[in-house]
Design brief:
Layout lengths: L3 H9 L4 E8 L5 E7 L15 E10 L2 E2 L3 E6 L3
Antiparallel strand pairs: 1-2, 1-3, 3-4, 3-5
């Protein structure tokens, strides 16, 4: 009989993790990088006003990673 631990270990390798990276649009330097293991929901603080950013999100699990979805975003003044 398979143990509960074996069952959890088997299915946990397929759990999705989500990663967010925020880059400064001019310099392409990373200004934020975080991972969420439950939902593709993130809060980023400390961004400069009136600044362009490239925001990239992708998911990954034990079988591999998705391609990043990238958007260009701008902060208010």
């Amino acid at each position: 009989m398979q143990s509960i631990l074996d069952f959890v270990s088997f299915f946990s390798i397929y759990l999705q993790h989500f990663m967010l990276e925020v880059l400064d649009a001019k310099t392409h330097l990373s200004v934020a990088n975080t991972t969420n293991v439950r939902d593709p929901a993130f809060t980023v603080t400390g961004l400069r006003p009136s600044t362009g950013y490239i925001v990239a999100v992708h998911s990954f699990n034990a079988k591999g990673a998705s391609k990043a979805m990238r958007i260009h975003a701008f902060t208010a003044r």
